[in-house]
Write a structure and sequence with these properties.
By secondary structure, the chain is of the alpha+beta class. It has 7 helices and 10 strands. Helix 6 crosses helix 7. It starts with a strand and ends with a strand.
């Protein structure tokens, strides 16, 4: 088994992504922390998103074999979510205010001899490749439908002549606040936020390893850039294209090319987005 990993900080002050690599348990994952919309900074000025992803990673990487459930990763993720809630309460966060919560998306797998267990929340993605070259997407970008609202507002601002990132963010802020209110609801998306409701919306399951060749886990910072006329969320075809590029170029090679593309559009006008470069974390596992 060959494992390639990458985690790169974007243009923000903190890398809110985190990588889970627990070799003893053969458990691997990516986390995508998100800063709360209510200002908070930790002892070293860390954002809530950074604190969330590090807390979850620390818990998952501390686990021992005897603590692992037999049939699902769900209990582990829910325990990490409960620990996140406790940490926020200790920090004085109002956990009834969704805009104040520290949050993180997650894509997590555990590899067994005959099968793979997985769990997913938010917009972290999991795809597998079979020996015949076919690609199967295990996850769904659950944030896509709410992201579309904010991205359309962003695109409309650009069409109206708004050119500074600060003005665009101020334009979109009311929509971002509304999106936060949809976390872990039927109208929104699942995310680790300390909310008990995650138990209803976390996606998880198991696939067998028959003819399985590779597994890819990524945060959304590795999604291909999309022009306004294109579908905002990574469709099945886009995920297949992402897998193909990484298989052809390597994880690091693909990330380098994507960063160059982002830098060439540093004003974020050709590919509307909220920052020049988002944090990028990925795991590419090839079974030999």
């Amino acid at each position: 088994m060959k494992i390639d990993t990458i985690t790169l900080q974007g243009t923000a002050k903190w890398n809110e992504d985190a990588l889970v690599r627990h070799e003893q348990l053969q458990m691997y994952g990516v986390l995508d922390g998100a800063t709360s919309l209510r200002p908070y900074r930790g002892p070293r000025q860390e954002t809530g998103g950074y604190l969330a992803s590090r807390l979850i990673r620390g818990y998952l990487e501390s686990l021992e074999e005897k603590e692992m459930p037999e049939d699902s990763l769900k209990p582990l993720v829910l325990q990490a979510n409960a620990l996140l809630r406790s940490s926020m309460l200790e920090a004085g966060i109002d956990v009834t205010d969704k805009t104040a919560l520290w949050t993180s998306g997650l894509a997590l797998i555990r590899i067994h001899d005959a099968y793979i267990d997985y769990a997913q929340a938010g917009d972290c993605m999991i795809a597998v490749v079979y020996k015949d070259g076919s690609v199967r997407t295990l996850s769904r970008d659950q944030v896509a439908h709410v992201d579309q609202l904010s991205k359309r507002s962003l695109e409309e601002g650009i069409r109206q002549g708004v050119t500074t990132r600060e003005q665009l963010l101020e334009l979109v802020r009311p929509i971002l606040l509304a999106n936060k209110a949809r976390m872990n609801t039927l109208q929104g998306y699942s995310v680790l936020s300390g909310e008990p409701e995650l138990a209803h919306f976390l996606e998880y399951g198991r696939i067998n390893r028959i003819q399985l060749k590779a597994v890819l886990l990524v945060t959304d910072g590795l999604f291909p850039l999309a022009e306004p006329s294109e579908k905002e969320a990574p469709s099945y075809d886009a995920v297949r294209e992402l897998v193909k590029r990484i298989a052809d170029e390597s994880l690091a090679g693909y990330a380098e090319r994507l960063i160059r593309q982002e830098q060439e559009d540093s004003d974020c006008l050709k590919y509307p987005r909220f920052k020049v470069s988002d944090d990028k974390t990925g795991i590419w596992i090839q079974f030999e």
